[in-house]
Amino acid sequence: MTVERIALVGFGAIGHAVFDLVADDTRLEINQVIVPAELVQQVKDELAQRTDAASVAVSDHVSLNERPDLIVECAGHSAIETHVLPGLEAGIPCMVVSIGALSAPGLPEKLEAAAKAGNTQVHLLSGAIGGIDALAAARVAGLDEVTYIGRKPPLGWLGTPAEEKLDLHNLTEKAMFFEGSARDAARLFPKNANVAATLSLAGVGLDNTKVQLYADPTVSENIHYYEAQGAFGFMGVTLKGKPLPSNPKTSALTVYSVVRALKNRVQPLAV
């Protein structure tokens, strides 16, 4: 049996959940956990309490001496520059969760160049949204338009520029506070950029993907809707995402998309 050795970059809500969900799969071995230097000892102490983590090395960088078969980024935008790009250049395939980072000018090109230099590949995960395979397939024949509409409870937008336009604490009906391109949405709302950026990369690009964002006191969950039309016809996808129990700001589906991608690497039948 072939065992896939994995360097997991990030051990926050997503990293924790991924670690737990693959711990009992003997075909997947997380042998490195990468965290900022100031968190290394804390994570070492935590993993030392687990019977399924005795052989896991914790560090602030990916060790090429214990070369992993795969690097999985679950740590946020800066981890792509720090860990993913060098990994790709060293010929290690990578998976990226923080797709919103690719709205930064030049970063998609850097990823592509690093993957080419290492003769390997970077896999951009679908995260909190579904239907990405269909959207990317539709692009083959030509897409005319892609529009994304995001709705959250008002307090889900605290700490964002939405506060400057709306009274989020006293909102009584749905209100739109942003309409523009996916690139501008990613710039203004970086912590909410992953879904729009994923749709853009699969579809018509960051500058041509239309985005509308709403604060909606009538909903209790994050609601993602997008529609696309082109030579293939028309599609509309709605997803009402539940958060991780351990972190209400993180979509559970984001974690499951990582686990699915990992299991597809070792299963005889990948779907």
Write the layout of secondary structure elements.
Layout: E1 4-9, H1 13-22, E2 28-34, H2 40-48, E3 57-59, E4 70-73, H3 78-89, E5 94-96, H4 107-117, E6 122-124, H5 132-141, E7 143-152, H6 162-165, E8 175-181, H7 182-188, H8 194-202, E9 210-215, E10 222-230, E11 233-241, E12 243-244, E13 247-251, H9 252-264
Parallel strand pairs: 1-2, 1-4, 2-3, 4-5, 5-6, 7-9
Antiparallel strand pairs: 7-10, 8-9, 10-11, 12-13
Helix pairs in contact: 1-9, 3-4, 7-8
Task: Please provide a written account of the structure.
- By secondary structure, the protein is an alpha/beta fold.
- It has two domains: 4-124, Rossmann fold; 132-244, Dihydrodipicolinate Reductase, domain 2, CATH 3.30.360.10.
- It is built from nine helices and 13 strands.
- The chain has helices at 13-22, 40-48, 78-89, 107-117, 132-141, 162-165, 182-188, 194-202, 252-264, and strands at 4-9, 28-34, 57-59, 70-73, 94-96, 122-124, 143-152, 175-181, 210-215, 222-230, 233-241, 243-244, 247-251.
- The radius of gyration is 19 Å and the shape is globular.
- The chain starts with a strand and ends in a 7-residue tail after the last helix.
